[in-house]
Amino acid sequence: MLSQKARYALRAMVELARAEEQVTAGELALRADAPRKFLEAILLGLARHKLVTSRRGKFGGYLLARPAEEISFAEIIRLVDGPLALAPCVSRTAFRRCEDCSDLATCALREALLRARDATAAVLEGYSLADAVTGQGAELIG
Known about the structure:
Elements: H1 4-18, H2 25-32, H3 36-48, E1 52-55, E2 61-64, H4 73-81, H5 110-125, H6 129-134, H7 138-141
Antiparallel strand pairs: 1-2
Helix pairs in contact: 1-2, 1-3, 1-4
């Protein structure tokens, strides 16, 4: 399930994609309907991973670090929430065997979880901030 933190991050990033110029943390919190202090912590993490750039001071604010077309929902969610997979044994980025699994090859759940991971990743990797702003690709998530 998508965390509230990831929802705020996605909303803030979509708002930054909509913006023609830098946006202050306060304005971004209003636009994203997020608590300012919490959003500032999220933005700090996004800046560390080079998804946003920030400028300090009176005329400071936030901007996307890359074009909106190059930032997918999957990238943001992975940074905030971790792997998209429902179980660690099907994760591409954080694979590990499930604690209660005796054999990966005969696991009755694994095939369905692999398919769910692949479908989720295909949609979220194929949906960019630019798509969210323009409404393009809505049929993918509809």
